[in-house]
Specification:
Layout: H1 9-12, H2 14-31, E1 36-38, E2 45-47, E3 51-54, E4 63-66, H3 71-99, H4 105-136, E5 143-145, H5 147-168, H6 173-177
Antiparallel strand pairs: 1-2, 1-5, 2-3, 3-4
Helix pairs in contact: 2-3, 2-5, 3-4, 4-5
């Protein structure tokens, strides 16, 4: 990417594309039912970021309860949702930043800083949820934090990594814009 510069049409949109993938993963985490599930038979517990569902036995009816009745449930949902909204804002800003012909490198560094703030909020929600869930909600059997919770962590890790890319990209401004003379390692005999 640095070799060809950000004017190279295929490389220019890699970072906004990765942010878009992070947004999709965040949507999956917010809407997914697999934050916590029973691992073994009988499967009697299933939880999302928003509610928990239990059933008395394998063939019984699911009884659902909102986690928004707990202060920690509201805190976990709010902090993760703030992190997700900041990620969406960064995605929109990245599309604007890379769509204009002359890149504003300070603007790109600001997107990186905002991604770090989004990561902090996402991680706070992802830590509050399992700590308080396992201490305040009665669970039976063996349970595991599942696929949607994993998508939440993937989103947070992508926010951190992309934050580094967006913050470090302006350090290579001259190479990206082609303002550096090539260095040749050939010497005449």
């Amino acid at each position: 990417m640095v070799k060809y510069g950000l004017d190279y049409t295929r490389c220019r949109w890699i970072l906004p594309l990765l942010l878009g993938i992070g947004v999709i993963f965040g949507i999956i985490a917010l809407a997914g039912w697999g934050w916590l599930e029973s691992q073994t038979l009988p499967y009697v517990l299933q939880a999302s970021l928003w509610q928990i569902c239990r059933r008395p036995d394998q063939g019984g009816e699911w009884n659902c309860e909102s986690l928004m009745g707990y202060a920690w449930g509201r805190a976990a949902a709010a902090t993760y949702l703030v992190g997700f909204l900041l990620l969406v804002i960064c995605f929109a800003l990245a599309i604007i930043a890379f769509a204009i012909d002359t890149l504003r490198f300070n603007f790109i560094r600001g997107i990186g800083g905002l991604l770090f703030v989004a990561a902090v909020f996402s991680i706070m929600g992802l830590v509050i949820y399992p700590v308080k869930f396992s201490s305040e909600v009665e669970m039976t059997g063996i349970n595991m934090f599942s696929w949607a919770y994993g998508f939440g962590w993937t989103t947070a890790i992508m926010e951190i990594c992309l934050g580094f890319f967006f913050c470090c990209l302006p350090n290579y401004e001259d190479q990206i814009l082609g303002n550096v003379k090539p260095t040749y390692f050939y010497s005449s005999p």
